[in-house]
Protein 1
Amino acid sequence: MPLNTVIREKRKEAGLTQEEIADYLGVSAPAVSKWEKGSTSPDISLLPALARLLKIDINTLLCFHEELSREEVIKLCKEIMDVIQSKGFETGFLLTMEKIREYPTCGYFIHTAALLLDGAMLMAGMNAGEKEKYLGQITSLYEQAARYGDEQTRIQSNFMLASNYTRTGEYEKAQKLLDLLPERSAIDKRPLLAELLITQGKTDKAGELLERRLLMTVQEIQMILMKLSDIALKEGQPQNAAEISKRSSKLAELFGIQEYDTYAAPLQTAIDQKNVSESISLLKSMLSSLLHPVDLGNSLLYRHIPMPDYTADIRNKMLKVILRELEDNDKYSYLHSSEEFEQLMKKFRSVQVK
C-alpha cells in the first residue's frame, strides 16, 4: 500500500481520529488529512513517532517492498508493451497480471497498466467478442487502482470506470462514480456526464450541461486572449498583440456571444498604443453594439440555457457607466483632445436605449 493508504488504514485500525494523530505529533488536523489523501507526506522527523503511534514498523509505514517509483512503472510498462508488440496481446496481458500480483497495492502502476491494456486492445483491432474476454478484468484493475491509489489516481481510475460502465449500459454505477469526482480537476467529467444523460434520453439536461460548459469556455478563451495580447504589448510586440486581438474579435461570429464583448481585447491593444483613430473606431462599434444586443436565447448554441435579458434599463445604465469611465479614467486622457472623440461622447450621451 502507498504511504497515504497505510496511514489512513492503520489509523482506523488503531481507533484514532485525525485530530488525535495531529495532537500526538504536534501538527494540524488538516496536515494529517493531506497525508491520508496523498497530497503531502509527513516530515521525516515525524516518521518514527508516527510508526509507533500506528503500531507498525518504519518499513511497513514506508512500504519499501510494495510501492514502485514512477521510473519503475515506466520501465515495467515498456516491458509489457514490448511483449505485446512482439508476442501478441494475450501474452502481454498475462505478463501484466503477473506483475500486478507482485505489486497488488501499487495503485499508480495498476492504473497505468490498465490504461496500457485498454489502448493496446484498441490498437489490436479486436472485435467485440474478443474484447469481452478482457474487459471485465481491465475494469477490475481500475477498481483495484481506485482502492489503493493516491487521490489523483483514484480520480483518474473512477473516471475510466464511469466511462466503462456507461459503455456497458451500467448507468447507475456510472452516475455514482461521477458524483464522487470533483467538479473541477485535471479531468472534466461533464462530457461523460452529458453522454450518460443522452443515453437516458435526457437530451435537454445534456444540452444545458454542454452549453454552459461551451459558454464558460468561450469566456475563458476571451480572457486568455486579452492576457496574451497584453503580454505581447509588454514584450514590445504590438503586431502580435494586434493579431491576437483580431482573433478575439472573431469569437462573436463563431460562438454566438455578444458582439460587445469581442471589442475588449482590440480596444486594450489600441489603448496601450495610444492609437487615437483605432480607439475611437472601436469605441464607436462597442457602444453601438450595446444598443442592439444579440438575443442569445434564440442562439443555435445556447437554446437549452436561460440567457441574461439585456433590458433597455440595464443597457442605459451600462452606457452611462462606460461614458463616465471614458471621461474620468486617466488611461483615456490621450483621447480627450480629439474632436472626433468629443463628437462620439456627445452622440451617445444623448442616446436613450429603448
Protein 2
Amino acid sequence: MADGVNISRERDFVSIAHEDYGGIVTPGWFDPDAWGAAAEPVSSGGRGGAWFVETADLSAVLRKYLRGGFVARFLESAYLYLGEKRVRSFSEFRLLLELHNDGFPVPKPIAACYQRTALACYRAAILVERLRDSAPLADSIGHLSLGQWQSLGMTLRRFHDAGIRHADLNCFNILVREDGFYLIDFDKGEIKEKPKRDAPWKAANLARLRRSLGRLNWRQAGAGDLESRWAALEEGYQGNVG
C-alpha cells in the first residue's frame, strides 16, 4: 500500500484501489456483466460505456474508457501504452483522490484498472462513488434559481483558482445536488501550478460549458433564457454577488 491506495498486479491486469476497499477489489469489479442485475447502463450524456452499480455494500459508477471521433471506428477502447504513469484511468484516479482529500466537490474514487493488450495497447476502466440524489446540470436547468447559477459560478472559480483544469467541462459533467454542485469525469484533467487569474485555459473551460448549455432546449425545459442564467453564473465566478 502506498499513498492511501492498494495496487494489485495479475499478469497483464493491474488495478489500483482506495485504501477503504483494501484487497477486496477484483477484476470482476470492472466487468458490468459480472455484476449482473446490479449494473444498470447510464443513459444521460457521454458515449456510453458507463453503468450504475448498486449492491448492499456498494453504490458506484463504473466507466470504461472509450475513444471518440474517427479513431473510434478502429480502436474503440484501446490506447497506446506509454508506461503506467500515463495510463488514463490511473491518472484520473489519483487526481480524484487528491481533489476529494482536499475537500473539492468530486466523487470519491473507488478503484481503477488497465489491461495490456496486443500491439502495445491497453484498455482501462474506473469505479467512483455514485453521488446519490443528484442529476446532470443538463437535466436540471428548469429547476435552478439565479442564486444557484451564481453558486455554480463560485464553485467553478474555486476549481480554477486552485489550478484545476477539467478537460471536458460540459453540462453533463456537472451534477446538481441539494448541497451544491459536483464535477465528474476528470479524464485528462490536471492541476496546473501557480495558475494566472486570467489564464486562457480558464476562459476556454467556461466557453466549452456555455456551448454545451447552448445545445439544450431551454424553452421546453421552462428554464427561462440562457443569457440571464449565464450572466448569473459569471457574477458568481467573478465574485460579484451581493
Protein 3
Amino acid sequence: MLPLLTGLSIAMFLWPTPEDLSPAGQSALAIAILAVGLWSTEILPMAVTGMAVVVMLVLFGAVPAYQSALHGFAQPVAYFLIGVLTLGLAVSKSGLANRMARFFLHRCRGQRQALYAQLLLAFPVLTLVLPSATTRTGILIHVYAQALELSGVRPDSHLSRAIMMALNSINRLASTVLLTGGITPVVSASLIGQVSWSRWFVLMSVPYGVLLLVGAILIHRLYRRGFEGTPLTVPEMEAEPLSPAEWRTIAITIGASLLWLSDAWHQWHPALPALIAWICLLSPKIGVLSWREFEHDIGWSNFFVLATSLSLANALIQSGAGAWLATRLIEQVPVMQQYPLLTVLGLLIVSTPIRLLIPNITGFLAITIPLAMSIGAASGLNPIVCGLLVMIAGDAVLYYPAQSASSLVVHERGFLSAAEIFRFGIMMTVVAYLIAFGVALPYWTAVGEPLQRLPIP
C-alpha cells in the first residue's frame, strides 16, 4: 500500500493546482496521503512520522506559519491523553490492576470465552461511570494485560490480540450511545442540532448496540484459535485488604470521573479533570507515582502521534483541502429522489476516503455532516438521518492508530500491528454499511425519524 500512496502523494504535489483548491490545500492533501501510508505500514516509528508531518507542513507551504504546524500541541485533547495514561499507569503501579486481573480470572474460572465476554460487558457498564473510551482503555489495558500475564498467555497469542482488538476498535462504540460520551456524539449533535440527551440515546442505542455486538463476533471469528485449548491458569485471590496506594488511586479516579460526569454543570473541558488527576497522582503523599516512573513508563509516542495528527487535520481544514476533497466526492453522489437508498449508499461510500485521509474524527465530522445534510435536503431526504449515517460510517472504523487516542494506547503496548488494525478497519467499514441499511434506517423509521421525511414531488 505504501508504494501506491507514495505515488499518489508525489502525483498530488506535481499535479497542476485545481482552480478551486489553494496551493496550501494541495500540499496538505499530498502530505496527508503520505502520512496515511507511513502510519498504516509503520515503515518509520509512528511518532517519527508525526514529526515528519510537522516539518513537511512547513517546508511545503501547507500552513501559513510554523506555529500552525504545531497546532496539535496546543490542543487540550493531547493533554487529556496524558492524564488518562497516568491514571492507567497508577492503576498498574499501585497493584490495583493485579487485584482486578485476579478477580476477573476467578470470575471466568479460567474459561477463555468468559474472559472475553466479561470485557465486552464492561464496555457499556463502565461507560456510565467513565464516558470517555480513552479513559476506559487506559485503565482496562493494564488490567487485562496483567490478567493475560498471570494466566500465562503470550502477548502475540490469538487470545491476547482478540482482547486488545476489542479495546482498540469497539470499546469506543459504547461511548457514542451517550450524548456526553465523548467527542463524536458532542460534535455530531452540535452540527445536526436539536437533539436532546434522551433523543440521542433512543436513536443511537440500537444501531450502536448491534454494531458493538457484530464487531465483537467478528473479532471472535478472526481470532477463534485463541478461544480454543486448555483453560487459563487461575492464580490465587489475594486476601489482603486494599493498600493505601490502591485507595488513593481509586479516590483520584472516582474524583476525575465525577468531574467528567458533571461537565454540564461546570462546563470544563475533559482535559482539566484529567490534568487535576495527573497532578494528584504525582504529588508526594497524595499520589502513587514518582516523576521517574511517569517519565519512564508513560509512552510518550502516544502524545506526539496524537498532537501531530491534530496538526495535520487542522492543516487540511484550514487550507480548504478537506472541504475540497469532500465536495468533489459528494458531487458524485446521485441526487435521485426516486431512489433514496442509492443516495444513502453514495454518502456512505464517499465518507470512507475522507475518513481515511483525515486522522481526526472532529475534522471528519465537521466536513462530512454538513455536506451530507445538504445532499439529503436536496434529495428530499431527512437531513438528520443523512448526518447520522455518515457519522456512523466514520465512527465505526479505525484505519490506523493515529485516528484515535484509545487506539494509540493499545498500539503502544505492541499487541497489535498497524496493518492488523487497518485490515479490521476495512472489515468494519462493510459492517457499518450493512448496519446502516439493515438496522439504523428501519429502526429510526420506527422511532419517528424516517429517511424520507419530505414528500416526493
Protein 4
Amino acid sequence: MADKNIQIACMTLGMVGTNCFFVFDEAKTDDNGKKHGVLFDPADQGRRIYDTLTEKGFVIDLILLTHGHFDHIGGANELIELSGAKLGCHEKEQALCQDAYLNLSNDYGMHLKVKPDITYKDGDIIEAAGLTFKVLFTPGHTSGGCCYYCEEGKFVIAGDTLFEESVGRTDFPTSSTSELLRSINDKLFTLPDDTIVYPGHGETTSIGHEKEYNPFVLGW
C-alpha cells in the first residue's frame, strides 16, 4: 500500500506544457513548520515555481532532472539561485544539459545551459526531504535520461520516457528508438503494475495500463 502522506503537486509550464512535479511528505515539517520536498524538471519560470511553493510553506531541498531538454530545464538556473538547492541528473546527461544544440534550446533562440551539481548512476538511491528515490537509467529519448522510482509512494517520475499510451520522441540528438523501448521494457515494465506513472507531458497513467494498452510498446 502506498504511503498516503507522500504527496505530489504539479505545475504545467512552458510552451509545450511540461509537467513540473514537487514531491513532499505531508506528515513531516521542520522546526519552523515548513514542509520540505524534491522538485522535478523545473520547466520554466523559476521564480514563479519558487514563489508558489514558498507561499504555501514549502522548501525545495533538491532539484532533479529526468533529462536535459530545454522544456525541462528552462527555470532551473533561476530556481537554483532563489532556493539554494542543488541540481542533479544522470551522469550521462551532463553534456546535453550544457550544450544548447543538444538540449534543443538553440532551436528556439534560448541558448539554455545548466550545470548539474550532483550526478547519479543507475540504481543509485537518493535520500532527500525525508523521501527515497531509486534512479532508473532509461536512455532513448536522450542518451542520459532517467526516471525516479519511489517504492514507498508507489509511483515513478518518468519524464519523457513513457506517456499515457505513448512514448518519448526519438528523432532528436542522442535519441535511440531501440534504447527507449528497451528502457521501458527492462526498467519501467518490471515495476509493479499498480505503480503510478507521472510523465513529463500529459496525464498520469499506470505501469499496468501501459503494458496492456500502449501501442508503441506492444509486441516489442
